[in-house]
Design goal:
143 residues; two-stranded antiparallel ribbon; CBS-domain; alpha+beta; single chain
Length: 143
């Protein structure tokens, strides 16, 4: 199973903020969409970084309430690991585990076409394993 299958099932909606949006605005966007991270895109839609709720918590810890006035680009992770439609679920899980992040932008060339979360990847693995179990049951029952 690939990232393409996950996006086909969940859709390719991307929640993004501008690099000059404040942390207060970013927090509102995350809360509104009930998500843990947003992409930071420039005006042309190019990926600049990712900002997560963990980044906000770290900024609040370091700067207190003043962190709410900081810009998204001050907090974002700039060196973003990305996937393509052909990335397998196992590869995505390995990238996320090794990099200790929970959101993986999916790219087609230099264009963002979706985001998969660790929850999406785990759900895909569970569904795949359930299918394998059913196939084995059918094989044993038929054999």
């Amino acid at each position: 199973m690939t990232v393409a299958a996950i996006l086909k099932h969940k859709g390719n909606a991307v929640t993004a903020v501008a690099p000059d949006d404040t942390v207060a605005r970013l927090a509102a966007v995350l809360a509104e969409h009930r998500i843990g991270a947003a992409l930071v895109l420039d005006q042309a839609g190019r990926l600049l970084g990712v900002v997560s709720e963990r980044d906000i918590v770290a900024a609040l810890s370091a700067h207190g309430a003043a962190a709410l006035a900081q810009r998204a680009d001050a907090l974002m992770t700039r060196d973003v690991t990305t996937a393509s439609l052909g990335t397998t679920v196992a590869q995505a899980m390995e990238m996320m585990t090794d990099g200790r992040f929970r959101h993986l932008p999916v790219m087609a060339g230099d264009r963002v076409i979706g985001v998969v979360s660790i929850g999406d990847v785990v759900k895909a693995r569970i569904m795949a394993q359930a299918g394998e179990v059913e196939s084995l049951r059918a094989y044993v029952a038929g054999g």
